[in-house]
Amino acid sequence: MVKKTAYSRDNIFKLLSAIPDPEIPVITIRELGVLRDVRMEGDAVVIDITPTYSGCPAMKMIEDQIREEMDKAGISKFRINLVYSPAWTTDWMTEEAKEKLRAFGIAPPEKTSSDKNVLMGKKKIIACPRCGSTRTEMVSQFGSTACKALYKCLDCHEPFDYFKCI
Amino acid sequence: MNKQEALFKYILRIADNNLVLGHRLSEWTGRGPMLEEEMALCNMALDLLGQANALLQYAAQVEGKGRTEDDLAYLRNDRDFYNTLLAEQPNGDYAFTIARQFLTDTFDFYFYDELRKSADHTLAGIAAKAHKEATYHLRHSSAWTERLGDGTEESHQRMQRAIHELWRFTDELFEMNEVDDILLREKVAVDLRGVKTKWNQKVDEVLAAATLQRPDNVFMQRGSREGRHTEHLGYLLAEMQHLHRTHPGVKW
To answer: N or C terminus: which one in chain A shows less Cβ crowding within 10 Å?
Structure first.
């Protein structure tokens, strides 16, 4: 029988930080801000995650992936805790993650998540992730997933996704 | 009624609105007037169902009788649903769906803005998230209200008719009863009088921009706070619940 290494909080956090987002595999759930914390409650592990959007179907998948990683590490005493407060915001996304999004063809969220601007319909300038042009136009506020809006570039004529600011 | 019973009913009221309206919006899947709008409605349906899921989970926990969110969604009868009459109205034409959405989104936007300050931390957390989503929904439905209202003669007529037909369900949005009294004292509930003032302002502003008339002298319908509904809810629930009731606990 192989003796299992005792995992520390930091080890587990690092382990789970590497899980890619199911919809946007170039960034991890840590970079996205979905993985919030890993805590020890006695000898049990509590994993705090938060949804990007209330109905995001990827959450179920993320939970399954976390379970799988924990199983692989041989840790059975853990629970996944879904936290709603404070609400997820695109401001938590790292600069590095934003660059990865752009390279992947998704325009990253433009700071800052101002509710009023969105409500008043004030336009934000979103640069095309392919050619960099700022002559772009919103086609629809709702795109291929809950977190994205649909844009098109007026210079290179490519349609692209914009990661909405919330 | 004690605080626990009041809280259970209060959460159901919010959850049922989201569940029923989310189901209505999902009925547009595969039938949207254009691809972008179809995706918009599906996205909004998803937000609403997600909110309903979180709320029903919390309601089940508050009730403490071992029921789950699925039990509450699929195994309650229409008289035990507390969604507003507005939310359950059938989709109609696109103007009708947009009008129903606009009147609801405006309410949700201001309601969640207050609820996120609730002394109940779980409700406040869900509300903070829902408020961000409602912001996008309201932007969408108010833009379409203007576009259709101030559009062609045909679109104007349809939008005006939709606003007129749905107006009789709007008073009920702000109705408060014993549940609210108990929870207002605990600083858990939202005082709907304040929401009404803001709702009126926003609705007037958008209707004016859309060249639409605000209906007056309309006989107001009510009943959902006591679980009395229009005939449409029963049909909606029949469709939503029949699989779960026919094959209890089925998974696919």
So the answer is: N
CA dihedral angle for residue B241, residue B244, residue B247, residue B249, rounded to 10 degrees:
-170
CB–CB of A111/A165 below 8 Å? Answer: yes
Cβ-defined contact of B136 to A164 (cutoff 8 Å): yes
First vs last C-alpha separation in chain A: 50
Q: Which of B48, B125, B143 sits opposite A85 (nearest CB)?
A: B125
| H-run or E-run covering A36 | strand A35-41
- CB distance A166–B125 less than 8 Å? no
Measure CB to CB from residue B124 to each of A83, A85, A144 and give the nearest one: A85
Chain B hits for A86, Cβ within 8 Å: 125, 128
Q: What's CA B156's distance to the chain center, in Å?
A: 24
- Report how far residue B246's alpha carbon sits from residue B152's, in angstroms, rounded to the nearest whole number: 47
State the angle between helix axes of B178-185 and B3-26 in degrees (0 to 180), rounded to the nearest 10: 120
Q: What is the ipTM of this complex?
A: 0.75
**Beta pairing class for A136-140 and A148-153:** antiparallel
What's the gap in Å between the CA of A99 and the closest CA on chain B? 24
What one-character DSSP code corresponds to residue B22?
Answer: H
Per-residue pLDDT of chain B (252 residues; tens, 9 = 90+): 999 999 999 999 999 999 999 999 999 999 999 888 999 999 999 999 999 999 999 999 999 999 999 999 999 999 999 999 999 999 999 999 999 999 999 999 999 999 999 999 999 999 999 999 999 999 999 999 999 999 999 999 999 999 999 999 999 999 999 999 999 999 999 999 999 999 999 999 999 999 999 999 899 999 999 999 999 999 999 999 999 999 988 877
Amino acid occupying residue A160: F
Question: Could you tell me the pTM of the whole model?
Answer: 0.88
Instruction: Report cis status (omega within 30 of 0) of the bond before A86.
Output: yes
